[in-house]
Amino acid sequence: MNDLASTYANLGRYNEAEQLQPQALNTRRRVLGEEHPSTLQSMNNLASTYSDLGRYYEAEQLYVQTLNVRKQVLGDEHPDTLISMNNLALTYSCLNRWDEAEELYQKAIGIAERTLGNQHPNTQIVHRNHELMRARRPTEL
Fold this sequence. Notes:
Layout lengths: L1 H9 L3 H19 L4 H16 L3 H19 L4 H16 L3 H18 L5 H16 L5
Helix pairs in contact: 1-2, 2-3, 3-4, 4-5, 5-6, 5-7, 6-7
């Protein structure tokens, strides 16, 4: 079910993905537990779909939850934790919460450069999203 939901999301069929993802997430929570990497991936996938649907507040809640569990289980510098930080920062920028986005991007960039290196694709993604956020952010008078 999770694979089908991911396929729908990858095809841009977000409403269909969103119908399946909560059920997939609940199944993984029940069978694997809240802290299992597959459960956390399902949480991230559902949050991503919410974001793609413009439901940023729902996305934020799940991204915060996913990030907190990943930090606790995997540590601050794990690549999956870094992905969660990037996703949450992106959501903050979609909500025009510029200062929170900036702070999280700065932290994510520092971790990515230190642990993955400047040329790693995930480091480049965080840099690109940060630059896009800065371009969108209104200048203060």
